[in-house]
Amino acid sequence: MERAGGATTEPNPMKRKPAEETLDPPDEKEAEEGKVMPVELLQDHKYADIFPWLYRLNDTSETSRESMMISLRPEEDWERASRQQVGCHMLQIFSLKLSSSPSSITSTGPIQLYGFMALRDPIDPLRNYVFKRNRDDPFIVQDLHSDPFIYLSAGPKRGVYVQNVVLLEYDIKIKTGGDNRDHHHHHQHQEEEQDSPLINGVAVFSLPMWTHGPVTNRITGDRGVAVDISRCFIHNAVEITVQVFISELKPTTSSGGINLSITGRISKVTGEIKVFHDVVDQPCELNKFVVAVGYLSCLFLQFDVPGTPYNYLNLFAFKARRNGSLRDRRELHFATVDVIATCSILH
Known about the structure:
By secondary structure, this protein is mainly beta. It has one domain (19-344). It has 4 helices and 20 strands. The strands form 3 sheets. Strands 1, 3, 7, 8, 11, 12, 15, 16, 19 and 20 form a 10-stranded mixed β-sheet that branches. The longest helix has 10 residues, at 75-84. The model is unreliable at 1-31 (pLDDT under 50). Residues 1-32 are annotated as: Disordered. InterPro entries: DUF6598.
């Protein structure tokens, strides 16, 4: 993609410098916690003409970089990298919440969502998916009032580095047409045309909101629908890759499985990370997820199943280090849960 108007006389906003030098000074009004602010769209940013080129928006490929890149290197390479830095500025998404729906969709019944939401950063500006579902396997919001969240169990694939800006790309629809799995291509296209658009576009996260909790931005669609995204920039952070294994479901568990939810918290940061909420009906490994945690801070993971008594054993804690894995296996009331948390410097 060519830059509009040829060469630009403005400095390249993504030129590598220490993050403290490149980030704009925080705006106290914009950084106010608890306030829902409109998201800044790409076309409204002063660098809107060159960001598509820098972030390769014409390339829809998924990032090839995995989490735990430093921790999986040979030891001598990791030691060399760890001497250079301890952590970096990272973006953490806390939650996605469906805050409204089209009037044609009942607010008390299930809402089926499909499409994608992805982040792009300077390390590898390809799609790092936060949400990705196809039409045959939509994410279902059972009740907009009791649980309007879109859980983050599908991503991101790795930590998100913040130097100056991060782009958020999204295209999510509400499935209202029929089930197309057994239909011919012509019928599939007709049914997709009946679906309602939720949100579509590209947003820019550029303010260093060094708050004590997430800041919420509202993404508004064309038909009065909206999605709230809560996120926080975390200073001096490392990525923690979490793998959860559910085994030995207890005999007391009903034949329908357990309605498991996993939420996360970061010490010294208010706000809850909506990680996972689904029915688990057999031993399995859940999708791994990545959390940005300040160096030497703790990541807390709470496992909950409705109807089971509160137990402090349901709360797991992992301290963010430069490198290495921590493992915690526990016999909980509903199942045996094995959690592996691997710390790594992002780059």
